[in-house]
Amino acid sequence: MSRFLVKPVKAHKAAVCYHNPTMKNLAVFCSGFGSNLQAIIRATQRGKIKARIGLVFSDKIDAYALVRAKRAHIPIAYADPARFKNRVDYDKHILGVLQKKKIDFVVLAGFMRILTPYFVRRFKNRILNIHPALLPLFKGVEGIKDALRYGVKVTGVTVHFVNEELDAGPVILQAAIAVKEDDTFDSLAKRIHRLEHRLYPEAIRLLVQGKLVISGRKVFIRKRK
Ligand code: GRF
Known about the structure:
single chain; alpha/beta; Rossmann fold; 2 domains; two-stranded antiparallel sheet; 6 helices; globular
């Protein structure tokens, strides 16, 4: 198999004004199931997010997210991390792909790799992530499990800008839900994901409309342009 695979596919037939050159161009990075990707695709198709998804990138060839992207006629790219000398080389490769596709913003949606500072600096304030807990609590890959194990009564979802520190960038939006006494991982995860699918498209909408202003650790949402 070649070192990487880039498959440009036909234009996204359902996206509103796909060819509008003033529209921001998003790359969504996924490693797995891609339910957030699906919510973002839906929001672009319905015109809630006025941007196009120019690329779905994955580090896992079998990520179901890639199937979702193909179904929506979105170009996909995959690169096998094992074939690169180190993390920076891998990230340089991704940056090359993003440059070719003229990507404006990177949206991490279940991407299970930590981007290097090299990458983050080149997309400073242009990378978003969603985390299944109320940051700064329960950072890392087990946000839902850790909240449940800790016994918190309230948990939630955070959308934030990505900086060089893990799960520590300025917070864009947060939403909370109650943890029920009889919650299991599955029942809580289901409610968290439902919340994510509302919150992430909303944060991306604000981003592409230029409504987010970062000032130090704070993100302000402009009421008007
Ligand atoms: C989500 O819970 C997100 O918060 C976390 O990874 C999960 C991805 O789920 N970063 P999906 O692949 O979008 O279904």
